[in-house]
Specification:
Length: about 400
């Protein structure tokens, strides 16, 4: 096993224990920041479809880990776990498949202290059990699943903070890579093995089955589109020209009345700024543009005579090891709808992928808020086209 592999996918019991502790520490720190701003009280949290009440989200991450690790659940189906939750009504409150999103504000949850105690107890028991596990993929599957799930909720809590306009503490700022190189890279195309390494380690169900996949020759931006590049589109009247927008994009544009990206503001002096975690900061020209939805990415492509990469092209480029291909500062919208690969079968977290096929679009890469252990050229993220609250941007390909 490679000691320098940062991925959770191949981590043995020792490294996994450290990762689980780290993820929980991070979740609790984010929760504290939200609580300090008054958002531990769910009644004070705006009822938005794009966020969860933080207290619910905190309890849910611990409950999920308890369900799959401590209660040895065979699946996410109700009744598929052994025993009871440490919280008498945990199953009624925290099962995301059963508790409809809009009802999460109105649950009779225990107080913050009781939920934090529950989190601590679940983690302690998980670490105790993990210490006795063999370094075996099957034995470690539920631990790795719980870790990935908590890491994804960690990123969700961070974009919740952006949505609510809350400031960050130092440890939450994630990794900001150096300004990306400009230009594009030409690839000759060919056959590559798409999907996670299924011979060992952890693989998400939607990455299976790994299969040889052919891509035609293509040329792709070396890095995601920058603020400066996107600004040219905005200043050219891109948001006012109907011909750049798809039918769905035009409908979104009309409904949202947007004339620039979600968090951009123009100062009295005409200089563009962006809202970053509750602060107005200058628009950094070389940084990847972020908080764009699929419609905006597509409109930019039409305006510039480019196109979005397919997810296969993106994975091919990322796996190529080309030193100029930079990714990881923002999730990247692709031209690919989220669909099952041939041979797909849901894993034990039944609702991870299967319910969302056909209604979401694939994003590839990772954002500055994605922990290094979760980053993978195989990872398929997926959101509905109008989501601009997430840390998403895009790159383009030659037509
Ligand atoms: Fe979840």
């Amino acid at each position: 096993m490679d000691q320098h592999d940062p991925s959770f996918r191949h981590a043995g019991p020792g490294r996994l224990a450290g990762m689980l502790r780290d993820a929980r520490h991070y979740t609790l720190a984010l929760f504290d920041t939200l609580a300090d701003a008054g958002y531990a009280d769910s009644a004070r949290v705006p009822r938005l479809g794009i966020i969860n009440p933080p207290l619910w989200e905190l309890g849910h991450t611990a409950w999920f880990a308890e369900w799959f690790v401590l209660r040895r659940a065979a699946s996410s189906r109700p009744g598929a776990a052994f025993g009871h939750s440490l919280l008498a009504r945990g199953d009624d409150w925290f099962d995301s498949s059963l508790v409809a999103h809009r009802t999460r504000w109105a649950l009779d949850l225990p107080g913050t202290g009781a939920i934090q105690t529950y989190c601590a107890e679940v983690l302690e028991r998980i670490l105790e059990r993990l210490a006795g596990e063999p370094a075996d993929d099957a034995a470690l599957y539920p631990y790795r699943l719980a870790l990935a799930h908590e890491d994804m909720h960690g990123e969700a809590l961070l974009y919740t903070m952006q949505t609510l306009g809350l400031g960050l503490r130092g440890e939450m700022s994630g990794t900001m890579p150096a300004p990306p190189p400009a230009g594009e890279i030409g690839f000759g195309g060919g056959v590559f093995l798409r999907g996670g390494d299924q011979s060992r380690g952890f693989v998400f169900d939607n990455e299976k089955a790994a299969a040889p996949c052919r891509v035609a020759p293509f040329a792709i931006d070396a890095a995601p589109v920058t603020n400066a590049r996107y600004l040219a589109f905005v200043e050219d009247g891109g948001y006012r020209e109907a011909r750049h927008w798809s039918e769905a994009g035009s409908a979104w544009l009309a409904a949202s009345a947007r004339s620039a990206p979600r968090y951009w503001r123009r100062g009295d002096d005409g200089v563009w700024q962006q809202l970053r975690f509750g602060r107005r900061v200058a628009l950094a020209p070389d940084a990847a543009v972020r908080h764009l939805n699929l419609h905006e990415a597509q409109a930019f492509c039409r305006w510039s005579g480019r196109r979005l990469p397919t997810e296969d092209e993106w994975e091919y480029a990322a796996l190529s090891g080309h030193p100029q291909f930079a990714w990881g500062s923002v999730w990247e919208w692709t031209a690919s709808p989220f669909l099952p690969f041939a041979g797909f079968a849901p894993d034990r977290y039944l609702d991870y992928s299967a319910p969302w096929f056909g209604s979401r679009q694939v994003l590839r890469g990772a954002s500055f808020a994605t922990p290094a252990r979760l980053r993978s050229p195989h990872f398929r993220n997926f959101y509905t086209p109008e989501r601009d609250d997430i840390f998403a941007g895009f790159r383009t390909c030659a037509p």
